[in-house]
Fold:
Amino acid sequence: MNCLFCKIIAGQIPSTKVYEDETVYAFRDINPQAPTHILVVPKAHIADCNGINAENSAVVAHIFEVISQLAEHEGLENGYRVISNCGPDGCQSVHHLHFHLLAGRYLQWPPG
Ligand code: AMP
Structure:
């Protein structure tokens, strides 16, 4: 499959890994939008939030457990934001489900 994040998970494209287990991979965003910017992705290819269903949604719950562990490990006591962009209006650019973990500065709300 010609998917950037599938290639990163497979080790065909380098990444700065921060966490990996059987179903989840997390790595630093190449173009960070905050001092901490980590992408947390399911290893199984799911295109976007619309691809989450009863068969595969357990990995999403697990991703949020991983995010909580990462927040502790990265020392994000002051808070953070989790975002999943979906579709053109959501500004999704990579069509493999991913959750941005952003922290380390005050994050404006609402976002632009
Ligand atoms: P999105 O725009 O929500 O689809 O997010 C895709 C994210 O992937 C962007 O924040 C990019 O900076 C990031 N990205 C693209 N290519 C790479 C890469 N090779 N390694 C790490 N992050 C990447």
Helices lie at 4-9, 58-73. The CA atoms of residues 83 and 100 lie 5 Å apart. The mean pLDDT is 97.
